[in-house]
UniProtKB/TrEMBL annotation:
One of its GO terms (molecular function) is phosphotransferase activity, for other substituted phosphate groups. It comes from Hymenobacter chitinivorans DSM 11115. GO terms for cellular component: membrane. It holds the Pfam family CDP-OH_P_transf. GO terms for biological process: phospholipid biosynthetic process. This is CDP-diacylglycerol--glycerol-3-phosphate 3-phosphatidyltransferase. Keywords: Membrane, Transferase, Transmembrane, Transmembrane helix.
Amino acid sequence: MLRYLPLTLVYCRLLLGLVVLGLCGGAAATTALRQLLAALVVLGLVSDIFDGIIARRLGVATPALRRLDSSVDTLFWLCVLAGVVLLCPRFLPEHALWISVVLALEALTYVVSYLRFRKEIALHTLSAKLWTLVLTALLLELILSGHTSWLFGACVGLGVLSRLEIIGILCTLRTWATDVPSLYHAWQVRRGRPLRRHPLFNG
């Protein structure tokens, strides 16, 4: 049964995203609700961190699972972002331009991946992992306080850089691959060198 734990965590994260979106759109923004939402987002992040680690430890980190993981990650964070927009109605009008830039680059990564390999992204780069942590901090700040600080600029900057790196990796690789930590590693793979694996990051 342990072999199904990573897949369970992936689907639980999707469910958590839908619950967050539903709660944000259907209840008053009380302190208790904000704390519950923050806890659900943290649970989603924890599941995101450990599903890959557990899958690699159990030897079930298949390309199909990693592709599903990436797609669910995107859906989870889109649900949380949409929930935050409902919870903090002033956030979107004040930051629409930069949010649109990051979302457009995210969409572009999928377009490039499909054009090159006919598959969705499953790179799980280190910069994307770091961006996820900053994004989580930003969303938690918005959920708990209703406003944001320097975290928004940091999140946008890192989001843009990490998406551009992903596009660079996709253009560098000759064949589709999962868990490529950085553009440097992609270049090494292109030169025929084996990709070094780490059990915590990319198997």
